[in-house]
Every structure is written in C-alpha cells, then in structure tokens.
Design a protein that fits this description.
about 270 residues; mainly alpha; 10 helices; about 80% helix
Length: about 270
C-alpha cells in the first residue's frame, strides 16, 4: 500500500472498521451477552424466590452493554490504523541501515558527481523512493547539482524532514479523535445508567433494589471499561509518535553524516 495514497488509506480504514464491527459483535452475541443473561436470570430467579441476591461481579456483566461493545469496536479499529502506520515507519527505518550513497571516508562530492550518486536512489522501488530518507537524499543531491551551494542542500533536507514530521502528526488526527470518542461513549453509558436507576427509584423504596443496582452497574461499568481502553490506546499512540519522531531525526542525521559532510562546492 502506498502510504501517500489517501484513497488507499481511506479504504483500509473503512475495511478495518467493518471487520472490527463484525468481530466484536460476534463475540458479544455468542459469548458475552449469553453468559451475562444467564447470570442475570439466575439473580432474578433468586429474588423471586425470596432469597438474598448476591450481585456477582462477573466480567460478562461488566462488558455486556452496548457502550462497552462500541468502545471495543473503536479500540480494535484504532489498533488496525496504528498497526498500518507502525508497519510503514518500521519499513522506513530499515532504509537507515542501507548504504544509499556509497561515499568513502575522506572523499569529496562535487556538484558534477550528483548525477552518479543519485542513480542508486532513483533505481529503488517506486514505493521505497517515496520514503523520507530517499526523498531527502535525492532532493539534496539535485539541489547541490543545480545551485552548487551546501547551505541550500542543508535547508532543503531540513525542510523535507520538517514537512514529513508535520504530515505524520496530522495523520494521527483520526487516532486522536477515537481516543477522545471512547471515554465519551463511556460517559453516555453513565448518563443512561443513572437515568434508568432514577426511573426505578420507586421499586427501591418498595425493597426491590436489583433493578437499580443493575442500572447503576451500567453507569459505572461503561465508564470503567472506556477509561481502561483509552489509557491503553493512549500509551500505544505515544509509542507510535516516538517511532515517527525518531525516524525524522535519524533520517536528518543520516543525511548529515552520509551526504552533507562530503559536499564540496567549487
């Protein structure tokens, strides 16, 4: 997948959302909700028989509501988005271990030599040429060949790296939105649960507290699950940002060591 193709990225995100929806909903329909319903039915039977009902703190009860399901769908979706970005970044980092410009120590690179040293980069695969390091090196060589000015080369490489840093940061906007949306969905569950609990307050006065307890469980469980998921996703996003920042800095350093220090203007 070409990382600079917005249509490809959009289709990938759309497919990832669709698959996340299917996977999570299937797990909820086949595992979580049937077990939660069985536990709730047992509690209702005990209450009908006049027994003391013990509210079980089951993982199925904690996860059973629609808000938690929506949070897991979004979480799986954002994992897929971040996994793709991390895969591309790791491929770009692999370029740092390659010798794209083979200049012996102590050798000077003159403006007339730029065409020769550009060939290995131009012969790279089309997708690889779009990576940050080949673009920065090729642009630097072309600028040196045309202007014969070392400062212009340094400025060109710096501008490309800064532009790439801004682009990578802007591409995380969807991830940031999902991180914001997950706790918000949890708070929606809290409002819904408290509303249901207040609607059953008259039953609690009569001694039937099971309905109120379950509604309050919806309120607190949804926020609890949403916050845990958002904390985990935030950690992964910061790791991804760290990878991106290191890529830009290491690419700029590679250009300084492998290209800039060998340039010699006439």
């Amino acid at each position: 997948m070409n990382k600079h193709n917005p249509l490809s990225d959009f289709l990938y995100q759309l497919i990832a959302l669709f698959l996340s929806l299917i996977i999570v909903h299937t797990i909820y329909v086949t595992v979580i909700r049937p077990n939660a319903d069985a536990i709730l039915e047992q509690q209702a039977t005990q209450q009908a028989m006049g027994e003391t009902v013990e509210i079980e703190r089951s993982i199925y009860i904690v996860l059973k509501d629609f808000e938690q399901e929506a949070c897991f769908i979004l979480a799986l979706w954002v994992f897929a988005i971040m996994a793709l970005k991390a895969k591309v970044i790791l491929k770009e980092r692999a370029m740092l271990s390659q010798t794209l410009i083979n200049i012996s120590p102590g050798t000077s690179l003159l403006p007339a030599d730029t065409r020769e040293y550009s060939r290995p980069i131009q012969n790279l695969d089309e997708n690889e040429r779009e990576y940050l390091l080949p673009r920065a090196l090729l642009s630097g060589l072309q600028r040196f060949g045309s202007t014969k000015n070392i400062q212009d080369v340094a400025t060109t490489i710096k501008d490309i790296c800064e532009h790439e840093s801004e682009r990578l940061d802007s591409e995380l906007s969807m991830v940031r939105y999902i991180i914001w949306a997950i706790p918000s969905i949890g708070f929606i569950g809290t409002v819904r649960g408290i509303g249901e609990a207040l609607g059953q307050a008259h039953k609690a006065v009569e001694g039937d507290i099971l309905g109120v307890t379950l509604s309050l469980g919806v309120a607190f469980n949804s926020t609890f699950v949403a916050l845990i998921i958002s904390i985990f996703i935030m950690f992964l996003m910061h790791q991804l940002q760290l990878l991106q920042e290191r890529l830009v800095l290491d690419s700029q350093r590679y250009c300084d060591i492998s290209l800039l220090r060998h340039l010699k203007a006439l």
